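Researcher: Quick sanity check before group meeting.
Model: Go ahead. Protein one:
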Amino acid sequence: MVSVANPILPGCHPDPSVCRAGDWYYLVTSTFEYLPGLPVMRSRDLVRWETIGHVVDRADMLDYAGIASSGGLYAPTIRHHDGLFWVVCTLVDQNDDTRGGNFLVTATDPAGPWSDPVWLDVDGIDPSLLIDDDGRVWLHGTRLAPDPEHFHQTEVWVREYSPAERALIGPEHIVWNGAVRGAVWAEGPHLYRIGAQYYLLAAEGGTEYHHAVSVARADAVTGPYEGNRANPVFTHRHLGRGAGVIGAGHADLVQAPDGSWQAVMLAMRAADGHHYPLGRETFLCPVTWEDGWPVFAPGAGLLPRQADVPWASEEPPAGSWQPDDRTAGVVAPRDARWTSLRALPGDVTEAKGDALVLPVRAETLADAGTVAFAGVRQQHADVDAAAQLALSELADGESAGFVVRQSEGDHATVTVTRRGEEFAVVATHRRGGEERVLGAAVTGPAARLGVRVRGHECALLADDATLGVVDTRQLSSIATGGFLGLWLGVFATSHGAAPMGRAAVESFTYAPA
């Protein structure tokens, strides 16, 4: 029996959505302010995943300018029908509600290219779509109810979409307001046609500790929907803070190669029951059907630490990262795992042989701008990560360094600043917008900077010496606000002055301990 450790996609892979096309499964997750946006991952067995492309991979597809952390791309849905792949998603600007909105893109090849966005004239977040047996397309999503019975009550809407007109058509139908009175945010809705009935799956309770899965069914896609008397049909909130995994919800259903049903959903590994520095991750959950209703994790009622996958022929490759099986420890200059802030990595970095070059930019990590930054998700609680930097081309006063990033207001850095012929190193922790110096040293024009993370203890290193230690619980989104896990990366800045120099990342390693 092959089994796979949950989460199947560790690190910040929230709001998973999955579809099947032939023998392949395709999965997308939220990426917020990071680009490229919405990684498209492919698997034959729901176990071994590879990133084959990104939905948002062109600079002119979406306007990211000034979007702050935990804004950007929320909760995509991917579907396939008759040779065409569809993705719907929301672009959120938390500081400007007149920008962004819900959009739809399509592609014949999920690796791309994807079409330019078709903007949908509807408010709210978390759009999804059902392509019915007759070919009609039904868009749906969630938004705050205009006349709520309680705080943050939402409503799920359904409306037909015309591919020919590239617009929503016909009347809108409000089909759901949540299963539990007083529960916030019935969100992440997905509609399915299974047999003669339509099923509505929705998250509920907010995407944190009280997260849950509810389900309803109807004889017609537009309702009326009958809620399952067992709602919420899945949650971890009743297990208490000591469960180790909290916040399970935002599920999407798919049939496995053996015909069984499975769900992908987000949850958070929280060793102390509260903090989850790695963010919201993607888990696999078995599903059976009883009396016409889905039963999640039958007989157990919680996400398995090891998910049995009897249809799989091979274990995930030993020592590989999930979702990507690449050279262990090394992140090459054009590796698909690199992401940047509000810009594509190729627009703020250059590949020069085996080195990743960062032309200095004026923006700092504290700015919601286009920063000279490239990073990867932290996917393991215990990890060693380091960058070997060549700094001789920095101009006087310019800096480059290594960062553990949560947001503009919350991150920890090891920064080298050129002062004439001297290269000064400082370790800092920025918390709630206030920066504190943890330690300082002097290095040369070549420096090795990085971190050693063991549980919640993150040592900030310069040339293998510890300059300071940060508690990553202080960088977890439950402490800082927002929706993201941690990124480990490199940056360069002129601190607002006209940029002149560059820093070369001669190597970047990520090694689970």
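Researcher: Fine. The other one?
Model: Protein two, sequence then structure:
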Amino acid sequence: MSSSSRPLSWLKQQPGRAPHLSFGADYNPDQWPREVWDEDIALMREAGVTIVSLAIFSWARIQPAKDEWDFAWLDEIMDLLHAGGIQVDLATATASPPPWLTTLHPEILPVTVNGDTVWPGARQHWRPTSPVFRDHALRLVDAMAERYGDHPALVAWHVSNELGCHNIYDFSDDAARAFRLWLERRYGTIEQLNHVWGTAFWSQRYGSFEQILPPRLAASHPNPTQQLDFKRFSSDALKEYLVAEREVLRRHTPDVPVTTNFMVMHETRGMNYPDWAAEVDFVSNDHYVMPSEQDRDELSFSANLTGNIAGGRPWFLMEHSTSAVNWQSVNLAKREGELLRDSLTHVAHGADAVCFFQWRQSAAGAEKYHSGMVPHAGADSAVFREVVRLGETLRTLAPLAGATRSTAPVAILFDWESWWASEQDSHPTDRLRYRAEALDWYTALLNAGIRADVVPTGTPLERYRVVIAPILHVVPDALAASLSAYVELGGHLVTTYFSGIVDENDHVFLGGYPGALRDLLGIRIEEFAPLLDTEQALLDTGVTGTLWTDRIEVTGADVSVLARYASGEFAGLPAVTRRDTGDGTATYVSTRLRPAGLAGVVDALLARAGVESELPAALRGVVEVTRRTQGSEDYWFLVNRTAEPVDLGALDGDVVLGHESSAPGQTATLSARGVVVLRRPVDAPPLGGSPEQHELRVGAH
């Protein structure tokens, strides 16, 4: 049974427990002496912790040998947590196999693309397709479910942990066998596979499925469709494993929801999370900030995408950090206010639970320098005081629990298969970064004060006035038809370089680029023109492009040129075009402009679509605005994107949260890195712009 057919209540309801935003962390009591546990419970109560994820990496403690079990310590901590009023998201503990298992069965260890064994000593050293590993892991899951299924502290099951973080691509013999079965199910015959993979090239034609291997280290570039299919297969293999654990849990505890923590962040691309979402009862996510130019915007982007993968329903922020992590090149501590702002940005995008890795900072092990809610300095520390403050804040926001995300006027279409395929080898440039281009557009919209949804492919587009589809490289016929219908109905589409190039089999559309989107855009390109790292492309609008250019031929009479190249081989030729069709438009941007360079394109696009910011002019670009809906009320989150206080002016609405705000209707100040939350009627006009424009939808003219 998929999650879509199950009750939407995400945590198992406990009698007498009022709706609230959950707050807590991964908790690892087995790392600490028994006398620390009582202090932990007391500090959790002080901080307002309501839930912990327990036993994530405890397999070796729970099952110290093949036929030996030790549940006594886990029984005790479960009881202590329940007595302290703390709920438990109980892990199946299968994330990392114990030494006895890898000693008895080294055949469960993954194999790299080079043929090297991934040895024990870290974590996730198991093959997703290993039948031996699965037998032992499901035996543990069965034991956990049987023992704790009726425990009053249990409110959710946590399958494994960060599935695929370190073992998404396994090239072992187990993987080869599973890959062949997957391919046979997908294509039916070896003749069809040969056609799809284009095996006439380089004498790769197969006589049977048994001849096929994963794309292991080869003398040159492996077959590109084989690579793409192996990415699809690897995501499916882990999804199948997730379902296997879930089914054991549901057999014992059909009333306890099941989740696993996704990793929608940065360059974590191997797992197709929109495809996985239907297999869990609620979506969970882990997110960590990277020190970069757009770190704040990336956090918002990832939270936004997670909320839309969850279908607008509340989701669980399973992990983020109170301060520094341990795995970056330079691990920076968070600045004052960032712990609160980061947490509330996730809430603004739909998170109904805010949790950290981890509760108490480890004294030993690989993650001992990763921050915790209780740092090495102890409770008498700035970090713990900020944790307590966050707990108080989440209690203030309790009425928000269960609120859904409010649809924005603009969408950024995020396509996992385009991400996979566009960055493969043997392409016009290896500098292209799919997610970076999408994030540039998101930042440009934030700079304009525009609320946007980051949505996976398959999301209904008619609810949006503007759809931005950056580097939409893979365009099956159905998607091309959907985009054309969207524009014909009055929608405003924008796409970029290297879009519309291949079908779902990674076959190029012939006749000129951008292939599947050529007629819709009214342009034709004969040859790609990527740029060297030292090259730039000046546009006549005064902005500079990098990475890519195109020699664009305008083929439609209804196409206008919004910008031209002002230098180089393409001087005077189109750089940005727009085709008008009825009330809709289709825009093409042929170079990477970064957020500042996209400002003019965004302004023109929004003006043509009739979309204005919901913020007063003085706040646009300085404040991020996000909305969640609860019944007849909207909760407006105003997040300061800067390290300086911001004068909000007069606020129209009830101030639910805002440490430096005054009474409604009076001026208010948004503190540096601060957040203000307003409660307003659903039909209230925007804080800035015209009241009508936000009601516009495609086909509703």
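Researcher: One line on it for the slide.
Model: Residues 224-252 form the longest helix (29 residues).
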